[in-house]
Amino acid sequence: FKGGDTCEYLLSSGRFLGEKVWQPHSCMMHKYKNSEAKNCLIDKHVVFIGDSRIRQLFYSFIKLINPQVKEEGIKHGNIPFEDKSASIKVDFLWYPEVNGSMRQRIKSWTEGSVAKPHIIVVGAATWSIKIHNGSNEALAQYKINITSIAPLLEKLAISSDVYWVLQDPVYEDMLSESRKMITNEKIDAYNEAAVRILNSSSRNSKAKVKVFSVSKLIAQETIMKSADGLHLPESSRDTNAMILMNVYCNKIMKPIDGSCCQPQPPLTLIQKIAFCFFTLSIIGYLIISLIHRNNYRKNKSCTDLESGEEKKPAISTPNVSTLEILLHCFCKLGLIMTYFYLCDRANLFMKENKFYTHSSFFIPIVYILVLGVFYTENTKETKVLNREQTDEWKGWMQLVILIYHISGASTFLPVYMHIRVLVAAYLFQTGYGHFSYFWIKGDFGVYRVCQVLFRLNFLVVVLCIVMDRPYQFYYFVPLVTVWFMIIYATLAVWPQIVQKKANGNCLWHFGLLLKLICLLTCIYFLSYSQGAFEKIFSFWPLSKCFELNGNVYEWWFRWKLDRYVVFHGMLFAFIYLALQKRQMISEGKGDPLFSNRVSNVLLFISVVSFLTYSIWASSCKNKTECNELHPSVSVVQILAFILIRNIPGYIRSVYSSFFAWFGKISLELFICQYHIWLAADTKGILVLIPGYPMFNVLVSTFIFVCVAHEISQITNDLAQIVVPKDNSTLLKRLLCIAGFFSGLHFFSAMQDQSR
Questions:
Q1: Where are the alpha helices (DSSP H) in 528-564?
Q2: Count of beta carbons in the 10 Å neighbourhood of residue 745
Q3: Per the annotation, which location comes first and is thus the protein's main one (predicted)?
Q4: Among 685, 16, 693, which Cα is nearest to 354's?
């Protein structure tokens, strides 16, 4: 289903999500702030022409520029408005009927001596119905008058945006006696006449007067809340004003969450090169496949006509070459990236705004929890945070985060605070996992570092190229990448202290603790010294990776939000491995982690701590204040969960294979959701099947999960080729990667100059 002309849809169709949130058909509507509205309308002149209903729209429109405006103008007269700071002029001109006076005013703008308004909003009819008591003669005169005005509007539409506002329905039961002749039947007749005449006038013209008919749909849902049966309630006219702002400003401001009326962005030079590369990979793979197929046919078992026996070929099937694996991976990746581009850069599929309700978040949570418990199996090992358990932990957290994103639950602060803990738990596992590996293995070689960096960053680098987004846009990957390098630097710097060395001399444990204290001191200093942090990451080439919208503030904010949790993960790993080495914990199958008494006390403390944190998070009133406390207290719920999950032996001995499966592709799920499950860079929802929300979610989710799984396999296959174990070969590959990024930087600089 093609999105079509999203401007046309924005002006003519949509539905309410809940009571006040308007959802245009097929596209997303941006909620403009005062500063954005001013930036869009700077040096612009806007004119509203019509009756009291248009006056209502005028006031709602100027309140988007200045919310302090009060509706104190003359009711039956012209009302000027000016914002001198942005040189914006908005005028309301009182012309309640489509007559000669209105025609003369519009005609004056078509003459060269008078400056034309940039936006003209016109509409009138109810006064004609009222004054002439709904007579047919008045309707006939209305048709004549609008026929004479239409060519003038068309002429203005060549250089200005002209909108004809259709008449909203009325709530006839509430109309006063003097307005009883204004019926919905009469309004429909006037609207039909206006649409027919304006459309026929613009049939052979490039410019077109845009018919603003969506207000009729909005009024049908809300007119019963009207104070007098004629004028719309404030929330409805505010929606109309916001639609008008989206129609004009989206193509200028290009907001991410405002897909309506935005043209498809042109392909960049880097995107064109990527397209050519993937096309050649697909062609190359098809050629090799055809060659292999022909060879297979030649060597295929043939039937002996005399004996009827099958003879086996003498030649064995050759091993798959590295080139074929590469082409196969890039062929699949090219097809997947085409889907990414079509979903979130081309105007092919529809996009819709998110709308949060408690049921849309909590019902899916309960559903996946039941599924997860249903697929319970025994673990291969019963150690604390064993591989199956950590995969399970990543899996259910990722599923909760996905539901959180698609349901728009970030607007509900208690849910937001709990999701912040899940993100922190991912980083906690980063600290725990990498520290454990380096501490136990003592492997600080380049191969290990390159393998981790490749697996973390491959998909994001490809998406940066294909989707034309900066690296920092996918903030979680830069976050775990930087923390991995910090962990590596902390442990690899002289003196290298590992478990084998520390077992020989206990003083080395104090040396490692001293390293961790130094790390904590650096984290504390950078978290309270924004200037120093920004200077470090503003140096080239780091600035190219961590800048977003021209500065590194977003990166500082993301880093600061979970600044201590990786350190907590490293410290927990150190303490746990020390206790394990000294056999102070029992990790046998079915055995509690400590003695029964200690286990019960720790379990009680963990449950109380877990619930206490949840109560605190649920009582949060201010997001900024809660975010300030979050880095220091999030570890409480994380440690409580680990102890609850691992102290009882029977719980530690089982895991959910359902959650663990998703945990193995959790990174790919987190990144892929940006473009092929959500839309407009996570701000909206992708609509593959319009009109059937549940079916759409099922279909898009199935494709999304399959794609994430496939990308995980592609990444693993390419990692074996791009990052070989042989040091000399690895050095050559690193030089090639350096050349690739140098070329990418060169083409990026060319793009920036052309823009």
A1: 530-537, 542-546, 553-561
A2: 13
A3: Golgi
A4: 685
What pLDDT, in 10s, does the model give residues 422-432? 999 999 999 99
Q: 524-569: per-residue pLDDT in tens?
A: 999 999 999 999 998 888 888 898 888 899 999 999 999 999 999 9
- For residue 163, the Cα-to-chain-centroid distance in whole angstroms is 32
Query: Which residues, other chains included, contact 738 with Cβ-Cβ below 8 Å and sequence gap of 6+?
Result: none
What confidence score (pLDDT) does residue 319 get? 59
Q: Would you name the residues annotated as active-site residues?
A: 52, 228, 231
Cβ count near 363 (within 10 Å) = 12
At 292, the pLDDT band (50, 70, 90 cuts) reads confident
**3 state SS for 59-119:** HHHHHHHCCCCCCCCCCCCCEEEEECCCCEEEEEEECCCCCHHHHHHHHHHHCCCCCCCCE
The answer to whether 166 and 212 have CB atoms below 8 angstroms apart is: yes
| Distance, CA of 531 to CA of 553 (rounded, Å) | 10
**For the segment 296-326, what is each residue's pLDDT rounded down to a tens digit?**
777 765 444 344 444 444 444 445 788 999 9
Question: What pLDDT sits at residue 201?
Answer: 60
Domain range 6-253, its CATH number among 3.90.850.10, 1.10.1380.10, 3.40.190.150, 3.40.50.1110: 3.40.50.1110
User: What are the sequence ranges of the domains in the chain?
Assistant: 6-253, 349-723, 725-754
Q: How many Å apart are CA 315 and CA 533, to the nearest integer?
A: 63
DSSP 574-624: HHHHHHHHTT-S--STT--SS-HHHHHHHHHHHHHHHHHHHHHHHT---HH
Is residue 58 within 8 Å of 90, Cβ to Cβ? Answer: yes
From residue 64, give the alpha-carbon distance in Å to each of 218, 242, 258, 521: 19, 8, 16, 46
Q: Which residue has the tokens 């350096």?
A: 738
